[in-house]
Design a protein that fits this description.
The complex is a heterodimer of chains A (about 650) and B (about 160). In chain A, helix 10 packs antiparallel against helix 21 and helix 18 (about 450-470) packs antiparallel against helix 20 (about 490-515). Chain A has about 650 residues and is an alpha+beta fold. Among the domains of chain A are: about 175-405 and about 415-425, no CATH class; about 520-620, no CATH class. Chain A is about 60% helix and about 10% strand. Chain A is globular, with a radius of gyration of 27 Å. Chain B has about 160 residues and is mainly α. Chain B has two domains: about 5-95, Cytochrome C biogenesis protein (Helicase, Ruva Protein, domain 3), CATH 1.10.8; about 105-155. The longest helix of chain B is centred in the C-terminal third of the chain and has 27 residues, at about 105-130. Chain B is rod-shaped and about 90 Å long. The chains are: A alpha+beta (about 650), B mainly alpha (about 160). Chains A and B meet through helix 14, helix 15, strand 7 and strand 9 of A and helix 1 and helix 5 of B.
Chain lengths: ~650, ~160
């Protein structure tokens, strides 16, 4: 019964979103306050209905109601509760329901916290947001019904892919979707602004928190995904240039560009039209990602719904929203007036270069991901675009970007003195040079380019620290005065420094794992030892263990360094009976700087076991850096100015100023 | 970067929890030649397993191809000759790094094109800006109005 109510609520949500698409939009057009006011309760009702629907599906998973086809297909009564819940979105139908839930959540947030938006803008934003909901609710209700029943109901489910039964992966999709769908908000703002024909500083100010929120969620989602890949796949790979990873990377890069150009639009009134275009592109790339993953056009572990019919529906949605918004842009954008003149060397100029490089980087990922498809469709020729392509095209663009990142925050608005800015970075440059020499000395004979990468990483981190030191006048003032300045420093300034510094730390990790990790593949009998990276690994034995829904072969590997015992690692090989699949579970010992990564392989003849081990230098830094970047996003979001619904100070109430 | 693209797919297929790929018995005696063989293997795609290099795959066909590569190297082929040999049999699809040619011109130059075109637009826009006259100054009437407004608010906007 609850399941049917959930289904019914979903259909009601569709009806509500249709109302929310048209009524407020007509109201805004006619300047009819009553019609416009329909948007807010509709948005909240839509969220309530979809949340109920989602709750109903979750309930079916929690109680293992196998009369629901989805539960039968993706759950099992013996599965731990956390994976029963994550199973809700570990499949096509449920993940699309999560998609629309988050979409409705963002819409409701505008309804609740957007009281200070001009009435017409709010009404239009809610209408555009609802139109996206209509498209996707139609898609869910008519092609991907999560509530389909089975009769007779089976006694037991078929289980979830063991790969997806993982704590980090359980919460990877919600974060990723919050990012993808978060860009729907900036998209709605952009389209609403184009309909209004007006973009001003206040518009940019309202858009930034949503961009930040989406970017932040996407950062966390991507980091979680890559962390999962690292500790699950069994050899320390963290990024594969897999089409689906690329699908999440593209909106992230475009979102990063948007985040930066919105600053210029807000502070200087320049780059407005470009900011609108980026907002449209970021969400278009999110939609493209959804299409690539859901259609199964590209084979990947994520594409669990390989169904061409569904793919073509999403392609239709994609074409409608991307084409429609771009056409609207082409029509209305020339009417937007540009403001704020600036010299080439200025903060604006630096942010423009940032946008240029990020756009080129996005293009590299876009072309690399889709080119094989297009070439195949046009000429029938089949080619492979593997990681080397991205190393040749994407990497150099990012190197250029990394070189310029620390410089940007030191440049003033309108016109800047590049020599003065460079002077403030002497220390950072010195440290980078030191890092270059040290890593050459330390990893003598290693890959030639790696020490330069390391120098770049240090340059980013030291540059971020230099910016803070400069802003609080560290060492040029008494320390307590500097501390007082540090406390007064806007949160957004801390956010910038954290994000830029985190990028450097992440880069250091990437370089370390890629260039300086050690590999050991050997076979040992119980009692025998092997050496890697200064550690001695001794296989003490292999035991059996019963898990909740699997049984496992556990290797007991004693780790010692310089004769000192460091405890045991227990890599496992798990066998999931219900799913009839196997999964290796590596054991990782980390000290925060490097990881010792041990995998139990096959049983070789003569009682020996294959043991693989990796000493991954600097690996943890990848995710520590990612977390710091996300933290930077949190800090920026907490900035008074940007707090959602915050601009209620007297000064900001002057807001909607017409564009000059 | 190690070519790991296909790991996901491998795991998707769940064919092989073990990723110990190069069988010790396959290895060439000469370490330099073995090094070359592995480098080449990483750049060749396993034909039966989507998006995976033969170095990463334990599919039978990948093993065969690894042996072919090692045979060619042992026979004294250069890296280019080995690639040509493999491409002649399997087509361009087998290469992880697509070859530069008419069909892949847009692929390889696309990102650069975006960078150059975008750069051109950026330069043009900033030039045009520099050429544009500064914002008009306030007329005396406007200036008086502004002064009056500021007086009233006592709070000049920043």
């Amino acid at each position: 019964m609850i399941v049917e109510l959930g289904h019914f609520a979903l259909i009601l949500a569709l009806a509500v979103s249709i109302v929310q698409t048209f009524v407020p939009a007509i109201g805004a057009h006619r300047r009819d306050a009553q019609l416009m006011r329909v948007g807010e309760p509709a948005a909240i009702l839509q969220l309530a209905l979809i949340a109920f629907s989602f709750g109903a599906l979750t309930w079916a998973f929690v109680v293992s109601d196998f009369s629901v086809k989805l539960v039968y297909d993706y759950s099992h009564s013996l599965k731990p509760m956390i994976f029963k819940i994550s199973g809700v979105w570990g499949n096509h139908e449920g993940s699309m329901l999560l998609w629309v839930l988050i979409l409705a959540l963002f819409g409701a947030m505008v309804a609740l916290f957007g009281k200070n938006l001009p009435d017409t803008l709010r009404a239009r934003v809610l209408a555009v947001q609802a139109s996206i909901a209509v498209a996707f609710l139609l898609f869910v209700v008519f092609t991907s019904n999560p509530f389909a029943r089975l009769d007779p109901a089976p006694f037991e489910g078929t289980g979830l892919n063991p790969l997806l039964q993982d704590r980090a992966l359980a919460f990877h999709p919600p974060w990723l979707y919050a990012g993808y769908v978060g860009f729907s908000m900036t998209f709605s703002f952009a389209v609403a602004a184009l309909i209004e024909g007006r973009v001003d500083a206040s518009w940019a100010r309202w858009v930034r928190p949503w961009t930040l929120m989406a970017w932040l969620s996407l950062t966390i989602g991507i980091a979680m995904g890559s962390w999962w890949a690292y500790y699950t796949l069994g050899w320390g790979g963290f990024w594969f240039w897999d089409p689906v990873e690329n699908a999440s990377l593209m909106p992230w890069i475009a979102g990063t560009a948007l985040l930066h150009s919105a600053i210029v639009a807000e502070k200087r009134g320049a780059l407005k039209s470009w900011t609108i275009l980026l907002a449209i592109l970021a969400f278009s790339l999110s939609l493209l990602g959804t299409f690539l993953v859901r259609s199964g056009v590209l084979t990947s572990v994520h594409a669990f719904a390989v169904d061409p019919a569904r793919g073509s529906v999403i392609l239709g949605i994609l074409i409608f929203f991307v084409g429609g918004s771009l056409a609207l842009y082409a029509w209305r954008a020339p009417m937007l007036k540009t403001g704020g003149i600036f010299a080439p060397v200025s903060r604006e100029g630096a942010l423009l270069v940032n946008n240029l490089l990020l756009a080129a980087a996005t293009a590299s990922v876009f072309i690399g991901t889709l080119y094989p498809l297009f070439l195949d469709a046009l000429t029938g020729a089949k080619i492979t675009v593997g990681p080397p392509f991205f190393n040749y095209t994407f990497a150099p663009i990012f190197v250029l970007l990394f070189l310029l990142v620390p410089l940007g925050p030191f440049l003033g608005w309108k016109r800047a003195d590049i020599a003065a800015a460079a002077e403030r970075l002497y220390v950072a440059a010195g440290l980078a040079f030191l890092a270059l020499l040290t890593s050459f000395a330390f990893f003598y004979g290693g890959p030639f380019l790696a020490p330069f990468g390391m120098a770049l990483a240090v340059w980013l981190v030291a540059g971020a620290l230099s910016e803070i030191a400069w802003r609080i006048k560290l060492f040029s003032m008494p320390l307590d005065e500097s501390m007082a300045r540090a406390r007064r420093l806007p949160r957004a300034a801390w956010g910038t420094a954290l994000a830029h510094g985190g990028l450097g730390i992440c880069l250091a990790g990437v370089i370390g794992v890629t260039a300086w990790s050690e590999e050991l593949i050997t076979s040992v009998a119980p009692g025998e030892s092997a050496e890697i990276g200064g550690y001695t690994l001794t296989l003490e034995g292999v035991a059996l263990r019963d898990g909740p829904n699997f049984d496992a072969m556990v290797g007991v590997v004693r780790v010692a360094r310089d004769g000192r015992d460091l405890g045991v690692l227990t890599p496992e090989k798990r066998r999931f009976a219900a799913e009839r699949q196997e999964k290796t579970e590596p054991a990782i010992r980390t000290n925060g700087i490097s990881d010792l990564y041990v995998v139990l392989g096959e049983q070789a003849g003569d009682g020996k076991w294959v043991l693989r081990a990796y000493h991954n230098n600097l690996a943890p830094l990848i995710w520590i850096g990612g977390c710091i970047m996300a933290l930077g996003g949190v800090f920026s979001l907490m900035d008074r100015r940007l707090r959602v619904g915050a601009p209620t100070g007297a000064r900001v109430r002057l807001a909607p100023q017409p564009a000059e | 970067m190690r070519s790991l693209l296909a790991a996901l797919v491998l795991l998707f297929a769940m064919a092989a929890p073990s990723l110990a790929l190069v069988d010790p018995s396959e290895r060439l005696a000469d370490p330099v030649q073995e090094q070359r063989a592995r480098a080449i293997s990483k750049n060749l795609r396993c034909m039966v397993c989507q998006n995976q290099s033969i170095d990463d795959s334990d599919a039978e066909l990948a093993g065969d191809l690894r042996r072919v590569v090692r045979e060619r190297i042992a026979a004294g082929d250069t890296d280019a000759e080995v690639y040509d040999f493999v491409v002649a049999r399997y087509g361009d699809f087998v290469l992880m790094t697509p070859r530069f040619g008419p069909a892949t011109l847009l692929l390889w130059l696309g990102p650069l094109l975006v960078l150059v075109l975008g750069g051109g637009i950026v330069i043009a826009v900033t030039r045009r800006q520099a050429a544009r006259p500064a914002e008009p100054r306030l007329s005396p009437v406007e200036a008086a109005k502004l002064a009056a407004l500021l007086e009233k608010d006592g709070n000049p906007r920043d």
